[in-house]
From TrEMBL:
Stretches assigned to the Excalibur calcium-binding domain: 65-100
Superkingdom of the source species: Bacteria
The protein's name: Excalibur calcium-binding domain-containing protein
Region Disordered, annotated ranges: 1-33
TM helices/strands, residue ranges: 35-54
Compositional bias of kind Basic residues: 20-32
Keywords from the named record: Membrane, Transmembrane, Transmembrane helix
Length: 104
């Protein structure tokens, strides 16, 4: 920054001295193009593409079962015990007893 001294204009008014930034001066140099915006756009596109493709639900080896697929609770319990991680939707309250509303 530089300091510009006060001066008189042609119409007789006085302009008080003030600080002037050298950056404000116009330059005849051609401006360099900033490709940062294009780069960021491409990066965001690839990141979102990777996120959406990796978040897709993969096919599970578990069969989809509901309590209505079983006649008794003991039948559901046997099926549940074969793979508790796969059929945890049968056990709503996480007490390892699936389909408690079915008759024994």
């Amino acid at each position: 920054m530089s300091y510009r001294r006060g001066y008189h204009k042609k119409d007789g008014t006085y302009v008080q001295g003030h600080f002037v930034s050298k950056k404000n001066k116009k330059s005849n140099k051609p401006k360099k193009q900033n490709n940062l915006g294009c780069f960021l756009t491409v990066c965001i596109f690839f990141v979102t593409t990777i996120l959406f493709t990796s978040c897709e639900e993969t096919e599970s080896s578990c069969e989809k079962k509901k309590c209505s697929d079983f006649k008794t609770q003991s039948e559901a319990q046997t099926f549940f015990n074969s793979n508790p991680n796969c059929y945890r939707n049968l056990d709503i309250d996480d007490d390892n007893i699936p389909c408690e509303n079915l008759p024994d």
